[in-house]
Specification:
transcription, 202 residues, Tetracycline Repressor, domain 2, TetR family transcriptional regulator, elongated, transcription regulation, 9 helices
Length: 202
């Protein structure tokens, strides 16, 4: 009969996410992970597989707890145009309040792994398609209720919102200033009729 695990699997996965998020995939060794997670290397392998499998699990957990949870909360409880604005507002707030400038694990992975790893390229492309899909649904719903200009091309507008979001995440790693990030987002949000808000302190 196998022995029960003597650790909280979700807690050690959180530790792995933090390690990969701060240092990236290539710069993180199995020894780093075992130390951060508080596990022997054998327990890490037995529970999560090799480093690649653990990274995949960590990335999926990050996407579920971040992007997918945010989409469910905003899309189902806010009008479509406000949901888009709130999405950007939350990303800017997270970026401004990140003292270590870790950025977004999705974007970091896209830059580090997607160009030369076909498996992660497909996985990350799927996540970006989901992001674009969220924007597309909201734009279409906003056009239907009259809050977003009907003359906009729905698909192109969704792509513009996605590009702006990804650009913000990269920009914030260098200069996470609220005024800069809000200024960068303002033109694309103005396309869908979002009026500038009064400036707030970070």
């Amino acid at each position: 009969m196998p022995r029960p695990r003597e650790f909280d699997e979700e807690a050690v996965l959180d530790a792995a996410i933090a390690q990969f998020w701060s240092h990236g995939y290539e710069a993180t060794s199995v020894r780093d992970l075992a130390s951060t997670m508080g596990l022997a290397a054998a327990s890490l392998y037995n529970t999560f597989g090799d480093k690649r499998a653990l990274y995949e699990r960590a990335l999926e957990a990050y996407v579920e707890r971040g992007f997918r949870e945010r989409v469910r909360r905003l899309e189902h409880h806010m009008p479509p145009r406000e949901a888009i604005a709130a999405f950007f507002d939350e990303i800017i707030r997270l970026s401004v309040n990140d003292p270590h400038r870790k950025g977004c694990l999705i974007v970091n992975s896209a830059i580090e792994l997607a160009p030369h790893d076909s498996h992660f390229h497909r996985a990350l492309n799927g996540v970006l398609k989901d992001m674009e899909g969220f924007f597309s649904r909201c734009v279409a719903a906003g056009q239907a209720d009259g809050s977003i200009p009907s003359e906009l091309n729905t698909s192109d507008t969704a792509k513009a919102l996605l590009a702006s979001l990804l650009g913000l995440r990269v920009l914030a790693r260098v200069n996470p200033k609220r005024e800069l990030l809000e200024g960068a987002a303002r033109p694309v949000l103005a396309l869908i009729g979002v009026k500038p808000r009064a400036r707030r302190k970070s």
